[in-house]
Design brief:
- The protein is about 35% helix and about 20% strand.
- A hairpin with a 3-residue loop joins β2 and β3.
- α1 runs parallel beside α9 (about 275-285).
- It has a five-stranded mixed β-sheet with strand order 10-9-11-8-12, with helices on both faces. Strands 5-1-6 form a three-stranded parallel β-sheet. Strands 2-3-4 form a three-stranded antiparallel β-sheet.
- It has two domains: about 55-155 and about 250-290, D-Maltodextrin-Binding Protein, domain 2, CATH 3.40.190.10; about 155-240, 3-Layer(aba) Sandwich (D-Maltodextrin-Binding Protein, domain 2).
- It is an alpha/beta fold and about 300 residues long.
- The protein contains nine helices and 13 strands.
- The structure holds glutamic acid.
- Glutamic acid (GLU) binds near residues 117, 186, 187, 223 and 249.
Amino acid sequence: MRKTRFLAGASIVAAGLLALTACNSGTPGAAPAEGDGTDTTQLWEVASDVSLDGSPTYERMVSADKVVVGVKEDQPGLGFKDPVSNERGGFDVEIAQWIAASLGFDADKIEYKTIPSANREQELVNGNIDYYVGTYSITDKRKESIDFAGPYLITGQGLLVAADNEDISGPDDLAGKIVCSVTGSTPLQRIRDEYSPGDTVEYDTYTQCLEQLRAGSVDAVTTDQAILAGYVAQEPEAFKIAGDTFSEERYGVGLPKGDTVLKDHINTLFNDGGDVWTALFDKNLAPSGIKGEQPTADE
Ligand code: GLU
């Protein structure tokens, strides 16, 4: 990537953020960063001289002339699909686009599949997707069936409650409370294993949990703070974050097991691409108040 390209991209990002600030001010629940017109594809070039000898996943992409990427679609700031325009955006989606570009595939060669937390490993194992970028924590258990590149973001588990809730300020305040999370997620497992909520309920998506919270049928939603912050940014009058994080979630790119060539390629892209990472973070996550630094991708 040439520096001049990045600088051009950076000023586009800055302009986009200004526009976002202007149109969001005084409008609680206004749309988050996605779809703000910022064209971050300016931040990178589509590679033309790619050689990834020994990567079966890359071979499959080349023969299909497309990249099939697993993502989320209901996580503002991370992986989001605008219900009106159908446009996808967010930090994870753009990380997926950056990876595709580094492999020689333009954004219009990407086919997205929305895959819930519980099905990620299986979709990778079955070869239905080439890689997955969607708030996917690196864990030893998952590494039994798939590989990860990364980490590319570090966050932690938190709690979301109704904006007027006064009695939950951390995971130790959950006695007698009903907590909602997503099937197959690390936060659901941890709240059950390490804390003592009154009860837990699980759904396929966090937005289903939000509906339960809105209706008053659960007292809290638990998942990563980076995800929760996106929901609060979208509806600050309805929800708030209760207390600090209580785990470390290291986000990785899910890959078919054994494709070390692709894994090394992505790790190098991340470790050499600090400017791109920062621009994507500032555009997608900083607006909801998330703070973070780029971790070293050492998986
Ligand atoms: N990062 C956690 C996980 O991978 C929670 C978020 C999610 O469900 O995607 O399980």
